[in-house]
Structures are given as C-alpha cells and as structure tokens.
Amino acid sequence: MLSPPAARRVQFSVAVALLAAPLLAGEPDFCIAGTVLNAATGEPLRHAAVTIPQSAAFTDAAGAFRFCNLPAGAYYANAEKPGFVAAGSRVAVGPSREDVVLRLDPFSVIAGRVEDAAGEPLQYALIQALSASVAEGRRKVRVASAVSTDDRGVYRLAGLHPGRYYLRAAGWDGATPDPDANEAFAPIYFGGASELASATPVTVEPGRDLRADFSVSLRTAYRIRGAIAGFSPGRTATIELLGAGQEPSAAPAALDAATGVFQVGDVVPGSYILRATQGDGRERVRGELPLQVVGDVKGVVLPLVGGVALKGIVRMAADSGPAAPSPPNCAIRLSPVEVWISEETELAAATEPNGEFHIEGVLTGRYRIGMDCANGYISAARFGETDLLAGDEFTIPPGVAPPPLEAVLASDGGALDVTASTDGEPGPAWVILLPGSGYELHTRIARLNANLNFSGVAPGDYQAYAWTGPPEAFEYANPDARQAWAGRAVSIHIGPRDRQNVALKIAAGEDP
Amino acid sequence: MTGGWLAWLAVGSLAAGAQASASEGYRIAGVVVNAVSGQPVAGARVTLASIERRGQRLSAIGGDDGRFAFTSLPRGQYELAGQRRGLLPGRPSGAIVTGPGQDTESILLRLPPPAIISGKVVDDSGEPVAQALVELLGSRIIDGRRQLVKDSFKRTDDIGEYRFAPLPAGNYYLVVSGLPWYTKFNETLAESAPRSMTHAGYGVRYHPNVGDPAAAEPLVLQAGQEATSNFTLLPVPASPVYVHCEQEESLTKQYTLTTAGLMGNAVSVRQGGETGDLYNLWGILPGHYTLRAEAADGSRTWYGATEFDVAATDTDVDVTLQQAPSLSGMVVVDGGGSLPAQLTVLLRDETGRGVALAMGADGRFSTPVIAPGRYRVTIAGADECYLRNREAEILDVPAGAAVRLNLSMAKGGGRIAGTVDRDGHLLAGALVVLSPANRAVESNSDGSYEFRGLPPGEYALFAVEDGSDLEYANPAVIRPYLPGAKKVQVPPDVAHALLRAVPAPLVSPQLK
Q1: pTM for the complete prediction?
Q2: Residue B181's closest chain A neighbor by CA?
Q3: Could you give the CA distance from residue A301 to residue A484 in angstroms, rounded to a whole number?
Q4: In angstroms, how far is the first alpha carbon of chain A from the final one?
Q5: Fewest CB atoms within 10 Å of the CB: A44, A453, B114, B235?
Q6: Gap from B243 CA to chain A (nearest CA, Å)
Q7: Chain B residue with the nearest C-alpha to that of A235
Q8: Which residues contact A322 (CB under 8 A, 6 or more apart)?
C-alpha cells in the first residue's frame, strides 16, 4: 500500500510546528537577517543553509541571509554547511533583527602516514580515533571515527568534533597489502603506547588540522580456527578477539553462519580472549576462551553459554528501629567492566516489596554494581565471597547459577544540604560526595540547581566537590584524577542521623 | 606431496649456474625486475606451481639483486609468479617448461608498478562534494569478449577527493554521481524550504567530466601511470523518490539505483541501506531507472527489483522482495562413467562478476542463494571432456525460483597441440586461438601450446604475437585473421584424439 507523499509531509509539518512555533504571535512584518562566519577565520561562509522554523535559505557570497514577513516572537536560527559543526542562536524579533551573526566551528582533521620499520608506506592499515568519556567516574572510550590508509600509507580522519582523542593503528582493515606474506602488526597508539592505559591523547582544536604518523613493525601473523559449540544456525553471531587490556583486535574474523565454524586471521603473537556472542538481548549466549598465540591455532572449540539469573535481596538493618521505613526501595544497576564501549547495555532491576530482585540474562564476565536506595544506604553487600562494599567489581562465572547477592539497607544515614557558588553567584553544578572509606556504593552524585539535599548518606568522612560542565568531567574513580582535584575538595564528617550544611565553590569542569 | 617435491624445499640458491644435468633435476631461475624501469626488485616473493601436479607449490624470497632459483625440479610445466609489496603481481605469459635442451635459467619475472587514478569532485561553485559515489569500470577481455566490469567504487572524502590504487594497466571508465547535501532538508522542511534546496540533484558525470555517456572516454593507463580525473557536479531540478518496501521491516535493506549509462551498461546512481518500510531517495533527475533491493538475516536472503520512470514530480515506488533464487544441478557424462576430479561450474553475470560452484564427486553442485539475473555458464577443470548441451551456456535465474541446471558432458574430446615459431625460433607468450571454439591459450616458454576437451568439428587455428587485447570470441574481430589460419579437423567419436605438432601459424590481420 502506498502512502502518498503529501500525507508524510503533513507529519513533518506538524512536528516542526510543535517544536518551533514562534513564542509570540503578531503581525508578520519583521525580519531576521545576518551573516554566517567561519568561527576559526572570521571569513563569511557562502552557500551555508540557514533555517528558522518553517523556512530555510542559503547565504549569499558575503555570507548574508535574510528572512522577512515574520510575526514577532522568539526564533531559533540554525546554520550548517559541510565541513562545519552546525550552530545556532535564539533570536527575538519585534523589532526586526539585522545583525545576527552565526559562527560555525570547522570540523577538525587528523591526517598522517603509516609506514613499516623500513619506511615503506603501508596500505590497508586501520586508523581509529577513540573519543574518551567518563562514566561512573571511569574513563571509557569509543571509536569516534575510523579510516584506512591508501597506497601511499596516507589516512585522513575528517569531520572530528574538537576534543581529545586517542589515535590507534589497530591492524589491517580487512584487506592486506600482501596476502601471501602472513604479516600483521600489533595495535599501537600514536606516541608508541601499546595499550590505552599508557597512551597519551591528542587534543584537536576547532579548524586546526593535526598530523599524526605511525611506524609499525610487521610480524609473522597466525590464524585461529575452530568451531562454536552450541551454535544456532542462521542466527546473527559475532567473533571477537580481545587483546591486551581487553581491547578489541582488528584481526578479521570469518564465521560460517550455517555451521559456526570460524577463522580469525592476521593474529600477531600474544595473549588474547576469543569471544563469541549469538542472539540479542536476554536471549544472548556467549563463550570466552583465553588463548596464547605463538603459531597457528587449530581445533578451538568455543562453547556458548547462556546468561544466568542474578538473584539478590536487600534486607533492612536489624537495628533500624520501629521508625525504619520499609520495605527497601532500591534501583540495582549491573554494568560490564569494560573500558571499550561496545553495544553492551546496562542491566537493571528494582527491588520488589519483599526486598528481592533478580536480573535475567547476565553473561559471564566482570561487572560493577550500583545500588541507589530511596530510603537509606547500603551498609553491607556480599556476592559469595566478594565484599561489594570494599570493592564493587565481581565476576559472573560461565554457565553456573551465581550465589545470591545479599545487601543490608541502613536507615540511620545523615543528611547534607549543599549550596554552591562561583564568585558568590549560586549556580548550577554537579556535586559529588566521595567517601573517605573508598566504598563506592556510598558515593553520591547529583545535579545542583539552586540548592541540593542528600539524605540517607552513610555516616563517615567525605570529600565534596562541585563543578560546571558535564558530569563526566571528573574521572573520580581514577586516583590520579582525584589527586589532581584534591585542592578543590571540602571535607565533611557526617554522623548517624546527622544534618549538616556545606557551601561549595564551583570549579570549572576540566583538568585543574 | 611426493618425496621429490619435498626435496625441492631446498630452494633459493641465487647463483646463476650452468644448466643442471637431468640426474640433478632442472632449474628455473632468473631475476625479478620492475616491468617499467627494468631495475631488479629486491625481496620479491616468487612462487612456482606445477601444472601437471596441482596443489604442488614452492615459494622463495628473491635476493637483494632480484635473483631467484628453484632447483632439482622434475621435467614438466610450471606456472611462475612473483609479488612484492608496492608492485602488482607478475607472471610470464604461458608456462615455463623444463626438460632437455630448455633454457630456463634467465627468466625475467616482470612486476608492473601500479597505476593510479585520483581526482576531486566539486560542485558548480568549486566547493568539494563529499560522499559522491565514484564507480570504476574496467574494459577488458573476458572469455574472449571485451566487457565492462564493475571493478570498484569509492566515496569522496570531506575535501571531495577519491583515489583508486593500486590498479593494473588497462582501460578504465569513471562514473560519478552524488547528492547535493542540502536535499536533506526534505526530511525536516519539505514544505517550507525553497525548491532549490529540496528539489535539486546532480546528473551523472563520466570521464572526462562529461554528462553525456556517449561522450565518455576510457582512461588508458600504462603500468605505473598516475592519472587525474576531476569532476564538476552541476545542480539541476530533480525530485524525491519514495521507495516503499513493506516486507522484512526489521532488516536493513540494501538498495542500488541504476540507470542505463555507458554503452548499454547500467551505472549506479545511488547506493544505500535503510531499515524499515520506507527509503527516501532525494534529488533524482527525470529518467528511467532500475531499483534493486536486497535483505538478509543470516540464513535467508531476499531480492527485489523494479523499473520506473521519474518525471518532474515526486514519485512513489513499490518494491517487493522475494526469497532469493537457489540453484542446483548436476553434471552427467554421456554413457555414464566417472567425472574428472575438481570440476568447477563458473557462472558470470552481466556485470562480469563470477560465482564458482564446486562440484561433488557425484556430479552435483548447488548454492542456496544466487542473485537473480542472466549468467554465462562455463566449466573449469574439464580438460578431458566438453559440454554437449551448449544451450545451457546461458542461464536465466528469475527471482524467487529454484533453478535446476543440468549439464551434459561428453567424455574425451579432441586435443590439439603444437608449437608457435617466428622466423624459425619458438615463440613464448603468443596467443593461440581456436575458432569457433572461442578458446585461446598462451604459448609456453618452449613455444608449445595445447587444447584439450574439444568437441568434434572443424576449427581454424592461428596465433598472434601480442594477443592480450584480442577479442578472440568475437567473429567480427577474428575474421581478418582467418585467411592465414590453419584448418584443423577433430574427428567424431575419437577419444583423446591428439593432433600432434600442429604448428599454429603466426598471422597478422588481413585488412581489406
């Protein structure tokens, strides 16, 4: 059945109208006019597209644009052009505005050359730009952009937003310059580090191109061959090879969708984890196998194991007293401990009225747990032999029912009223309480607008911080980052059922 | 592998010596050179494969002076090949023949330097067009006929540049299509943006930057030549095409839009993937188009195709997916009897792409998925038999069908063998043509040639000195050669009839 294009357009128009209707109606006799400039050079940008709600126009050779016959009101004017980061501005008309200036930052480019130890260019090398972010106080990276080198060994990563990137020559991009040579190279970061943990990022500024060359050592490469046991023919499956630091290798993996027979090529000697995953969501099954590669590896059998159910219970502390609010009301989050962000999604559950919770489809691997309770703090938490309060990472073993996760919720926490300001101006900020105990389950982080109240804070010593910018600006789980931020902290002691006030100075959310 | 072959692994003695005596075996030695400069190439990988004993293969790395040598070889015919990173693979024409009186000591193994095509795509105002589709088609002889083959495609980068390298010498055509970036406002401002934004498109351009396919010219590249071809895409009025495909909505469908372009060959106008039931094509110029859709879920594949015309208005198009056709068949030998081992059924589609199907010991071959289309069928490895049902050489595979292909082979067939000489000297690397069998071979290092598996009949036999560009299966092309050809009869019902020592006359075309 065909739906006529006209019907589709009505949908678009309605959406646009709802999002962007002028805030004030009036006689349509005003204009918005101005110029679009290259923010890096100040030069006018011709043939940029400027849009306001319900209208669009190109800039002329002088970068100028003009919209007229507009009712009075507030508009959002947005400009874009290939090679530039789109940007806009709020414009109120009534009277007309003739002086709107929209400045576009050019995208940045990182370019360079990859050569072997003899200085010969290498084609088909895969270069990745990894952008770093911080989640739960830890640095995470994801591949922001990736390209291959050409026959001159030259690569060009374009369209990058300004920011910090780790550059990695990951391996071959799928093709190799000499298919019979069985040569490959181990991943290397710009600057020479072999792992992310010791790599130094490069900072890309708007419109400033950066050059980054790599020299790699070709080594004899090997193949890993085998079969997935428990494979469901025809269902989507992936084979990954994780190298040092659990970093994904670029080694090309081929999988026969009918049989589960696989081959991973171009593997340089080293320690790896071979991982196979099949299915989606809670149906996912996974197998992992550590491998030491010193030559061709044949006959690998990689069994797939389904996810398990993680069961647990949150109990009220025995001495909570008659005033204790019950039942426990906690949100439980389970996130895989991985520096590289893949498609993995966080698993979550909420406690039931009896305090029990269960999370289905948990695959084998290392996890970190988060427990946010509306009516108290976690005073004890165990997973088998692991004390989750002392260290919050734990391992789900493959294929066996994990021990129950048991936690105790105490309601004798204190309360803290927080205000924060910059030069006497109260302002929005992110606020974190880092416990002196190091117990991450007692860490509290929240957004402060005018003021902020933390309740159910575990008794103890804390360092409190406030900063502007994104919440991930502070990599608080990294001791180095904490050291660097130490001068910004305010120390607080909170006793049981205590109520305190603290005034924080807001720091800029970047490295001190 | 025989004991004799194991002994050959002692290779790589680089000194050129006297002809080995028969008791020590034979030598194949020479020097690897750059085919253009003639300079020795250091460190090339040289491989030698026996033609009579398939699968037996030796490999050696040439010296710094380019020299290589394989020693202690049995008498026989060998394929020699060399490769070196930065150069294209090279091999001498025809086979190297060892035996008494054969000089195989000073072979020049010529590796051609790669050719390169690069260029830039800009719009009417000289600004780069990113993400333009640049298609490279090679014009070359396949099965005796000149064909246009889709070799590769690239997308231009952020500065409008593309680069094809490494390329072998040859004749190439370039086809460039693109989409004005601002047509994306069809998605948000279809009603309110000016038509110059929403209803613009770029016409297809051909090398040398022309819009008329009849004016397209080939880029004729010699080995090592670097060519530049720049394009200007001019915006003209065009319309959106809305493609509706309401099946398999959860899968990502790959779409290819083609139009009749170069010499009756379809050229790609747009390629893309989309999940869901709607695929929007912005900026389509008036004309006649074919749209192909493909989807796969790991075990099943679907194909769909539709032809439609675009006038100066928005167009809706329906495409229906059908389960991919399958192909199965059997090769039977007249009068029963066993089949030669290692037969392969080769199918080549109209764009020159090939599908190879290995045949089992019982003569059966099959593939669960084959793209719909017209294929030319040949059988490889059939030295000792020939195809009897010639009508099976053209195979039509309709969408959604389970196609059966039965091939009837006659065992035996004639053999014609002999030598090519020029002025009393045996000539290596000449193209020996047999008509109307549409077959051709290159003469070996000793001037010898051989055809096997010939159906009974009368043939014309001739040789040309440099036949690499000869369309030997085109009757019009070979007609001028026939007056100088030798008539050869393969009598009926003669198994393995060998017409020995038929000298193939070296001819020049007799042009009237």
Answers
A1: 0.84
A2: A82
A3: 47
A4: 61
A5: A453
A6: 9
A7: B298
A8: none
